[in-house]
Amino acid sequence: MPTRRRSFAAASAALAGAVAVGGLVALAPTASAGEFLANGGFEAGNLSGWTCDAGATAVSGQAHSGTYAVQGVPSASATGQCKQTVSVAPNTAYTLTAQVKGSYVYLGVDGGTSTWTPGTGSGYAPLTVSFTTGASQTSASVYVHGWYGQPAYLADDISLQGPGGGPTTPPTTPPTTPPTTPPTTPPTTPPTTPPTSPPPSGGLPTHALVGYLHETFANGSGYTRLADVPDSWDVIDLAFGETSSPTSGSIHFNRCSAAECPSVESDADFKAAIKAKQSKGKKVLLSIGGANGEVQLTTAAARDAFVSSVSGIVDQWGLDGIDIDFEGHSLSLNAGDTDFKNPTTPVIVNLISALKTLKARYGSGFVLTMAPETFFVQMGYQFYGSGPFNGQDPRCGAYLPVIYALRNDLTLLHVQDYNSGPIMGLDNQYHTMGGADFHIAMTDMLLTGFPVAGNTANMFPALAPSQVGIGLPASVNAGNGYTAPAAVDQALDCLTRKTNCGGYATHGTWPALRGLMTWSVNWDHFSNWEFSNNFHSYFG
User: What distance in Å separates the CA atoms of residue 174 and residue 99, rounded to the nearest whole number?
Assistant: First the structure.
């Protein structure tokens, strides 16, 4: 991303509207043969027939076919929706299709089924939903929309096909069978016991403050020298180790240039600052990945290059360990890879192997942390990989096999509770970032365990509280999902003391919760250290 923030969750924002399945809609047989929508291709040059949120317009030159398409413009309080209501006949099946372009685009029917895409790249992609009306249904509203605060999207060739002469040829469609529904009964007790051997502490204090330091780039937060990072920070993640070729496996760590970061320290001063931090018990790690650092270990050669290059960086600078911050398309599950305990996808298997090799090479004191997005972890409660019908985003839950395989080597997992859409918790309710409730629900899932893809015979086991931290943005500038200090304290109260929980009932009390992670030290510095001051005010 231009500002070098962490990437938005690959598709977590889209799932909130995607889980309703079942209720289907049909159109009146008195409509024209096959097609039931008016101006579905927007070739009128306007939005006639549609009711749209503010900002929507028919635009030329960007159509999937013909001349015009609709451009929806989401805002902080609106999804940029366009909707059309039509007459329907009871107990009749129909199909809604559209071509869409952009990120987090939904297609669906009010009160019925919907589908979505987390992103279409530079071109259009098809969306399809099939539905059947209820026994007394006489109207239905179909819609297309984006997601709150996301970029504008395009939609074209929206078509509602039904009986009356045979459908016209719709766009090529993806699998029409929707994902399975989430479990109906939340687990009430931890499904399996945590590892019997104590997890590695990595020499961290009982409650640790973790922050990312912008080391290879500059942005609006300004450059902060490592020596100037206050001693309140227990773990400092140097952001980022990246690769110029995603599938090469070779990681480089190129410190920010003086031209981009005028106040950057020399290599010698930087190395001295690392040693000074370590002499005070602080841990300095290489964070690999980030928003721009896609890493796909597709081959054994890439795996070996990863181990070799990462070892070289760790040795060069004398670091304490690594942080895995794989985002975007770094981790994805192949079709048919359905068991997180026994993964078969090469990028997953090779990453696990590489991390185990590094851990073995450096010993038990080697600090290993991970910073996945909610989409790759907690979303696994509902969806895992491409699903039984290959119709889901294959990145859903893709971190779970890595976390599970490294559970006895993992020092700390701090999921990014930000840049996320609504996520379903163990109460089978959606929780939205920015308040205490989100952090409580997301962390409870990690400390309780959960059935993967709703399968109670396939449980992701709870992590030890000492292995878990909560990831938050340091300020409103740092990313979507900023949480005010009072709400951060409320989440900590609930998770560590089971008080001040609001409406969410946790499945336990975890005073040993390790602490907080933030993006980033630089943004906290920019905001006069609000985040770190609140951390120490709470924990003392």
Answer: 11
Which tokens belong to 111? 């009160």
Element (DSSP H or E) covering residue 403: helix 400-405
Strands 283-289 and 430-431: unpaired
Cβ within 8 Å of residue 363, ≥6 positions away: none
Cβ atoms of 475 and 219 within 8 Å: the answer is no
Instruction: Confirm if 98 and 127 have CB atoms less than 8 A apart.
Output: yes
Joined together, the tokens standing for residue 325 give 């911050």
Which residues, other chains included, contact 505 with Cβ-Cβ below 8 Å and sequence gap of 6+? 427
Bridge partners (DSSP) listed for residue 115: 107
Q: Please, are residues 79 and 53 in contact by the beta-carbon 8 Å criterion?
A: yes
**Closest to 283 (Cα-Cα) out of 199, 208, 358, 370:** 208
Residue 192: Cβ-neighbour burial (10 angstroms; 0-12, 13-18, 19+): exposed
Largest Cα–Cα separation, the chain:
80
pLDDT (tens digit per residue) in 220-247: 899 999 999 999 999 999 999 999 899 9
3-state secondary structure labels for all residues of 46-58: CCCCCEECCCCEE
| Listed residue (163, 114, 123) closest to 143, CA to CA | 114
Nearest to 330 by CA among 391, 390, 386, 376: 376
The radius of gyration computed from the CA coordinates of the chain, to the nearest angstrom, equals 24
Tell me the pLDDT tens digit for each residue of 438-447. 999 999 999 9
Decide if 207 contacts 537 (C-beta within 8 A): no
CA angle 290, 392, 370 (to 5 degrees): 25
- For every residue of 305-371, DSSP letters joined together read HHHHHHHHHHHHHT--EEEEE--TTSS-PPTT---TTS---HHHHHHHHHHHHHHHHH-TT-EEEE-
Active centre residues (catalytic): 327
Phi first, then psi: what are they for 203, rounded to 5°? 75, 20
pLDDT tens-digit readout, 377-400: 999 999 999 988 888 899 999 999
Which among 159, 148, 145, 52 is positioned nearest to 106, based on CA atoms? 145
pLDDT, position 30: 31
Reading the block at residue 486, the tokens are: 């009072």
**What is the helix (H) or strand (E) element at residue 523, kind and residue range?**
helix 521-526
What is the predicted pLDDT for the residue at 171? Answer: 31
Of the listed ranges 36-50, 133-147, 225-239, the one predicted with least confidence: 133-147
* Pick from 286, 282, 329, 277: nearest CA to 306: 286
Give the C-alpha separation, 303 to 312, whole Å.
Answer: 14
CA–CA gap between residue 378 and residue 424 (Å, rounded): 8
Query: CA 477, CA 481: separation in Å to the nearest integer?
Result: 10
d(CA 197, CA 189) in angstroms, rounded, equals 21
